[in-house]
Amino acid sequence: MTLTVNGERREVPDVATIAELLDHFRIQHQAVGVLINGEVVGRGDFGTAPVREGDTLDIVRFVGGG
Known about the structure:
Elements: E1 2-5, E2 8-11, H1 18-24, E3 32-36, E4 39-41, E5 56-61
Parallel strand pairs: 1-5
Antiparallel strand pairs: 1-2, 3-4, 3-5
């Protein structure tokens, strides 16, 4: 499946949900925010929010500081 992730076209194995995609990249679900095609997806919806061929995703890591 071809997706655009953080501005870069990527070939990834077929995944059904954001949670599966994050697991593929070995990203902890609690540490990120995700947008699909410009729409914010709540962390509680990662397990059900679908990922489709051609989607554009932005995965943002939270960084502490001050």
